[in-house]
Amino acid sequence: MDLDLRKLRYFATVAEYRHFGRAAERLYITQPVLSRQIRSLEQELGCTLLVRTTRSVELTAAGRQLYEEAQQLLPSVAAAVRRVHDVDQGVQRLVVAFSPGLHVSDAIRAFASHHPDVETDVVPARWWEQDRPLRDGRAQVGYLRRPFDDSGLRTIPIGNEPRVACMPAAHPLACRQELTSADLDGERMLDVPNRRTSSLEEKFELIASGQGIALIPLSVARSYSRPDLAHLPVTDAPGIETCLAVAADRREKLLRDFLEIATATLRHV
Questions:
Q1: Residue 56, Cβ density class (10 Å: 0-12 exposed, 13-18 middle, ≥19 buried)
Q2: What is the pLDDT of residues 31-47, one digit of tens each?
Q3: Residue 44 φ/ψ, nearest 5 degrees
């Protein structure tokens, strides 16, 4: 059975927003058209993907599986289509993935000064699957933080970033100048595998509402500063390695040039 990618994109948008109205606005189509497309997709697959009520939209088990598959398939297809268009139009393009809080702009500017004819784009890498853009074709190189799955990748160490404890500004520890790991014993920590949040914004909302503390990279704390949160150094917390990553079998001159320039530039940031 051939899966209609347009319908899959419509479904993924509804699954993301959990709301037909907001999804329709995002897709620039009417809500009735969107509903018909989703029903048609369910009929083609022979299973129910969404449970609709007057107030909410929930995913069935099949819907959750399809959403997971769509999140991997759709970006790869979009990247492939862009590459085809680039070849057709004679465009050279370099796409760099970056972890939240890391700034790759200095390296891109330095690269552009040497290669003004090359288009450069960036794509954010979600913190729990930082290597994904390199594997699904959306990016050729990544500026990432460990840990991530580096199988099949070549990595170049860039630096080591300290971590800070992020907590509500009203937390009893927030008045301290610095902390140790022992000070956090007994605190509910949000950055553990069984409490994964879907975004940094969600994590910070949970922290600000008093639901826990998280150890985060210093650059993330600086990039997402807000008055209801406090960030304190944890003197004995291990740092986080930052690195450039690229598929091990990619050796194009353009990519080699970017890695050389980015290594020299980012190590001095």
A1: exposed
A2: 999 999 999 999 989 99
A3: -65, -40
